[in-house]
Amino acid sequence: MRIAPSSHRRGLLALAFAPLLGVSLAGCQKAPVAYKGMDITGAEYARGFTLQDAQGQVRTLADFRGKAVMLFFGFTQCPDVCPTALTRAAEIRQLLGTEGQRLQVLFITIDPERDTPAVLSTYTQAFDASFIGLFGDAAQTEAAAKEFKVYYKKVPTGSSYTMDHSAFSYVFDPEGKPRLVLRHEQSAKDCADDLRQLLQQFA
User: What GO terms are given for molecular function (predicted)?
Assistant: First the structure.
């Protein structure tokens, strides 16, 4: 007949094996990912868009499943912020090496009045042939900006105008979920490090 161990003995056994169990359990847990950008995993905004590309095809995030997506709102006549952001995006793809093929960069215009499909296509491909420009009418543009909490405003300049706007890049994982917001001042290397970590989770 098997004799059950006393409560005292059970307590000693538990204390003896606790460190071993702790090591075992810790080994099974993944270390949390520390991003340099802002982690927005689980966000209730920046969930998607419905716009058109330069060929007139309706595009949504679902079109890019399997790739990480980096998305930026701007306009082609922007003198500084937009070209800087897209130059950085091209550098990020290069820094990622072969993994750069798993990154799709999208540029959404906040100035559809002047950014025609032809203008958008020429502009985005000047930075990288894989970049895609997207546009909508005034209402669609406003809806997309609102979903991403993007600020933009037309500012008169003499006989013309410019556009004031926020300058964040949004990153989606290969399943189409919002994961990161990259600040304009972050370096290409820091952004590439973040994207590499994100892509490794979907290897």
Answer: metal ion binding
**Residue-range definition of the domain harbouring residue 108:** 38-200
Query: How many domains are contained in the chain?
Result: 1
Distances (CA, A) of 27 to 31, 47, 114: 9, 34, 56
What is the DSSP code string of 147-187? Answer: HTT--EEEEEETTEEEEEE---EEEE-TTS-EEEEE-TTS-
For residues 106 and 72, the answer to whether their CB atoms sit within 8 Å is yes
Q: Say if residues 199 and 99 touch (Cβ distance below 8 Å).
A: yes
CB 49 within 8 A of CB 147: yes
Q: Would strands 103-109 and 68-74 be described as parallel, antiparallel, or unpaired? A: parallel
List b or e across 71-96, with b for residues whose CB sees 16 or more CB atoms inside 10 angstroms. bbbbbbebeebbeebbebbbbbbebb
The pLDDT value recorded for residue 11 is 45
Q: Which amino acid, residue 166?
A: S
Which residues are annotated as part of the binding site for Cu cation?
Answer: 78, 82, 165
Q: Is 103 strand, coil or helix?
A: strand
Residues flagged as binding site? 78, 82, 165
The first and second tokens of residue 36, run together, are 């340099």
CATH number at residue 93: 3.40.30.10
Position 33 confidence tier, pLDDT thresholds 50, 70, 90: confident
